[in-house]
Structure formats: C-alpha cells, structure tokens
Design a protein that fits this description.
This protein is α/β, with parallel strands linked by helices. The chain has one domain: TIM Barrel (Alpha-Beta Barrel), CATH 3.20.20. It has an 8-stranded parallel barrel with strand order 1-2-3-4-5-6-7-8, surrounded by 8 helices. Helix 6 runs parallel beside helix 9, helix 11 runs parallel beside helix 13 and helix 13 runs parallel beside helix 14. The longest helix is centred in the middle third of the chain and has 24 residues. The protein is globular and about 65 Å long.
C-alpha cells in the first residue's frame, strides 16, 4: 500500500534553504489575520509600485507556487521535477476578463506558443487553458442563459442557444470556436494534451459544449482534449456519466480531469443574491463521496475515458491506486494520471511517482502582476483549510527535523 508519510521522498527535490523558506511561508499562511492583511495590501502595492514589493512577492509566495515569469524560466523547475519522474502541466497563468478581440487572439497565440514549447521538453505532456482567456465573459453568460432556457441534452441546448442569439453574437462565437480549434490542432500536431479549465456555473454550459465538440473532433484515437469537472457541484457526477454516453455514441475518448472545485464562495453568494438553489454540494462529505464515485466510474471505464485525478486529498489518491490494482491496471497506464499544484502536497506527488504512477505538477507561469489572482487564491486556500494547512506544515517540519536543520 502506498504511503504519503515519507518526507524524504516528498522533499528530496528541495534544498535545505528551500525547505526552510517553505516552512516560513506556510507558517505565515497559517495565520489568517496575516493572510487577510497581505491579500488586501498586495494588489495595491503592485498597482502603486511600492519599492521592493515585487522582489518580496517573487522571493516568497511567487517562488513557492509559480514556475517563473517566462516559459524559459519554467524549464528550470520542469527539469528538476523530471529528475524525480514528475511531469508538468503548463499553465499560462493570465486570468480572463478581457473585452478586446485582439487580446483574445494574442492569448490564443500564447497558448499555441506554450504547446510548441512543451513539445520540445521531455516531461511536459499537458497544458492548460481557460476559455475566458479567449472570449468575452458576457458572451458566455448570454449563451449559458439561453442554454438554461432550452430543453434537452447539453448539445441540443447548445444548438438552440446559438439559434437564439444575435447575428453579431453568432459571429463573435464563431471566432471563439476557431480560436479553440487552432489550439487543439496545435495540441494534436505536437502530441500535447489540452486541459480546459472549469469556470463558474453561470458560464460553464457553453464551455462544456465547446469542449465536447473538440473531443468529438480530436479525441478519436487518443485523448487530446480534457474537460475539467468540479465535483463540489452536485450535478457533476451525472454530467460525467452523460459525457461518457456521448463519447460512446460519437465514438471518441472522453478526457476528464477530476477536481473538487475552486469557486465555492462566489457560487454560494451568487445563489443567495439571485435566489436560486446553490449548485454546491450541501456538505464536504457529499463532495468527497461524489469525487470518489467519479474516480471509480472513470477507472472502471478506462478504455473509453482518459482521466486525471487532480486532487490534494490523500484518501482519494489512495482509492484510485487501490482501484487500479483491483482491476489489474498499470499505474502508468496512458489513460490514468495524477496531479497536484506546484508548491503543495509534495508528499502525494513524489510518493506516487516513486511507486511508478504517472503524476504531474500543475505549473503556472506568467508576469508577476498577471498571476496575482492565482497567488491570492493559493494564499486563501492554505489559510482556510486548516487541516490541509497543518498537514503541509507538519510534513515540512518533520523533514526539517529528519535533516536536522533549524
């Protein structure tokens, strides 16, 4: 049975200096008042160009969770991870929110540039994109609203929605389809899988639809395109099964990256504000149950599903490996992969790699000011999840004690 308690393997890639820095950083993130203060000050300090702000951020939280500001800088991190049989999922960490078509075209070219670069590296088989980086948020809202008003399956509702938007919006959406098609074509040509990130529920339906269409085009013989399913939504397990049915009917391989979720606060607040039933599970236990059921469904249908178990939950990772053993499936089967965020849960990543699992670190990169939203989420995450926070810090301290470093 795999154990995630071996800190020697977990932190072998970190020098004593790096381990001490991680100890300091996670200790700070364990103080909610300090994190709250930092989150309030950090964006303003960047905006006002307060001296040394970027240097401090770059040497602390940025270095912990981000691969670098450029593709070339990520190569240093990727090479080190590769020495321990850990792959990389590259993510151009610029958030959406743009309005100009020219900006969306530039983002598209940047995503293709990431694919072309990944193809030159030995351990970067995946890259990640956000649809909101190549389309106007409001257009997604309009499409999603129309899809919710329509009846039938996801794809039927998508077709109906396209019929009910303006001609200008149809033309704008066609440009979006062309952009993501170009990205997926580059992925297929370079043997780099494209992972489509999940979005908020009020724009997710058109994202799901376009991702299914891309799978139907590019996933005929292997998984090039993956959708991301947030299992803290109470409808995602059934959506996974519906997606599998579509894959069988259309004869493509379903790519499914399984995560718990990232927008819980916003989702609940909006549900209260708009007076509709929250899409979020009523309890963590329900989320955990659905997540593990999704893992089981994917592994028992692995011939037609390529899945990424992307979680920091030790029990879910163990459960996945137990299912693989039960079904006599190799840990490095081409349709099963594990992943954790860079800078977190090293005890899971490196111990899985040691046991021969196909595993990666999700590695964002980009100009410091552009990845601030991502860094803020990591700080909030590590301060709010006390159990995980304590686990991370406890493992770091145990390894420091093993190495006998103060």
């Amino acid at each position: 049975m795999i154990s995630f308690n071996n800190t020697e393997y977990a932190f072998a890639y970190k020098s004593n200096k790096a381990l001490k820095k991680a100890n300091f950083l996670f200790t700070c993130m364990g103080k909610p008042w300090l994190v709250k203060f930092g989150l309030a000050v950090m964006p303003l300090a960047i905006k006002w160009r307060i001296p040394f702000t970027k240097t401090i951020i770059r040497k602390t939280i940025f270095e912990q969770f981000v691969g670098g500001e450029t593709l070339q800088e990520t190569s240093v991190v990727a090479k080190k991870l590769g020495q321990y049989n850990v792959d990389v999922i590259l993510d151009y960490g610029v958030e959406g929110g743009g309005e100009k078509e020219a900006d969306f075209d530039i983002a598209t070219e940047q995503f293709i540039k990431v694919i072309n670069y990944a193809a030159t590296q030995p351990n970067i088989p995946f890259m990640s994109i956000k649809i909101t980086g190549i389309v106007r948020f409001k257009l997604l809202e309009i499409l999603d609203d129309q899809m919710h008003k329509a009846a039938g399956t996801l794809m039927k509702r998508y077709v109906t929605a396209l019929q009910n938007i303006t001609d200008a919006e149809k033309t704008e959406w066609q440009r979006v389809v062309l952009r993501i098609t170009k990205i997926c074509e580059a992925g297929k040509a370079n043997n780099i899988a494209v992972l489509v990130d999940a979005e908020e529920t009020w724009i997710q339906d058109p994202v799901d639809a376009i991702t299914i269409l891309m799978m139907d085009t590019f996933n005929k013989t292997k998984a090039v395109v993956y959708n991301t399913l947030q299992l803290y939504r109470h409808d995602r397990l059934s959506f996974l099964k519906d997606s599998y049915t579509a894959a069988i009917e259309r004869n493509f391989i379903l790519g499914a990256k399984l995560v718990r979720g990232a927008y819980m606060e916003n989702e609940r607040e909006r549900a209260i504000e708009k007076k509709y039933i929250s899409p979020i599970q009523i309890s963590k236990e329900n989320t955990d149950k659905d997540y593990n059921n999704a893992v089981e469904f994917c592994i028992t249908h692995l011939q037609k599903i390529a899945t990424i178990v992307a979680t920091h939950n030790e029990q879910s990772n163990l459960y996945a490996t137990e299912l693989l053993s039960k079904h006599n499936i190799a840990f490095n089967d081409s349709h099963i992969h594990f992943s954790q965020l860079y800078g977190m849960s090293d005890n899971i990543t490196f111990n899985l790699a040691k046991e021969g699992c196909s595993v990666s670190k999700y590695l964002p990169f980009g100009p410091l000011q552009d990845v601030i939203p991502y860094l803020m989420r990591r700080a909030q995450e590590n301060s709010s999840i006390s159990g995980q926070m304590g686990r991370e810090l406890g493992l770091i301290k145990r390894e420091a004690e093993r190495r006998k470093i103060a």
